Amino acid sequence: MEVWTVVGYGFFLGWVGMNMGGILAYSLGRFEQEILHLLVFMTVGALYTIVFSQILPESLALGGFGMTIIGFALGALFAFWLESFSHHFHLPTHSKKWDAFMKSGFLLAIAIGFHNFPSGIALGSTLTHSPSLAHGLSITLMLHNVPEGIALGIPLVLAEIGVFAFFLISTLVAIPIGLGAYAGSLFGHAVPGSVSLLLGFSIGTILYVTYAEIFLPLWEREKRKGLGIITLLVGGILAYFFLALLHLFPAPHHGS
Question: How many CB atoms lie within 10 A of CB 32?
């Protein structure tokens, strides 16, 4: 497969998956704010399950504990710096709540973008060097972006950002998949340690942004904390079964 075809294919898969999740998030936006808040807790549980049951084990398998923890530390520090940096910019906002959710969506978009790059490397390497496995990995990659699209969409729904703006943001977030596919098609599985570092970096950014910018502000305002914990666990359980379903489609590890 031609290199630029690989790039376009990777970008398209990521974009479709993200927007499937985004459309679902915006369709849920018709519910009351309290229900949306519970859906945020559910999304946080799903993201944490994806990180600890899939991304983290894969990073450890590729580069070991050292590369993973270095990437994690760099990612968390980068997310902390980005959060601090974002306080210096103030867009014309409707309210403090609008500003908070808009910033959460912005930071989460960056975190997901960093995770999409090593996913693209896996796709590009497979399409170029192991095309017989491309079908399974393509389905996995597209569906894997669905919960991330939901996670990105809900803060934007709460900030009352229009669906067209979400499509624009999802397009930008999908670009790293295409770039990663380009790198994977050129270098194949020659850089497992680097991919592990990137995965660790994405873990650090996603965990920090999800906790500090999405979960914690809502948790402090949530009156029904018991119900919040239940929805958090439900989200984690649903994500676990979703990932188990994806295992029905055989796919190689990142960088293989």
Answer: 8
Would the pLDDT of 237 be above 90? Answer: yes
Q: For residues 198-204, give the mean pLDDT.
A: 81
List the chain domain ranges: 3-246
What are the residues whose beta carbons fall under 8 Å from the beta carbon of 167, sequence distance 6 or more? 19, 22
Calculate ∠ Cα 184-189-193, nearest 5°: 105
- In this predicted model, what pLDDT tens digit does every residue of 126-183 receive, in sequence order? 677 666 556 656 766 776 778 778 878 888 887 777 888 889 988 998 898 888 888 8
Closest by Cα among 65, 180, 63 to 121: 180
pLDDT digits (tens, 9 = 90+) for 81-95: 877 766 555 555 555
Q: Do 42 and 238 form a contact (C-beta atoms < 8 A)?
A: yes
- Nearest residue to 11 via CA among 175, 149, 140: 175
Alpha-carbon distance of 59 to 48, in angstroms, equals 15
- Which DSSP string corresponds to 154-204? HHHHHTT--HHHHHHHHHHHHHHHHHHHHHHHHHTTS-HHHHHHHHHHHHH
**pLDDT tens-digit profile of 54-69?**
778 878 887 889 888 9
Q: Could you give the CA distance from residue 192 to residue 227 in angstroms, rounded to a whole number?
A: 41
Instruction: Look at residues 137, 142, 143 and name the one whose alpha carbon lies nearest to residue 125.
Output: 137
Q: And the tokens for 133?
A: 């496995």
| Cβ atoms < 10 Å from Cβ of 238 | 15
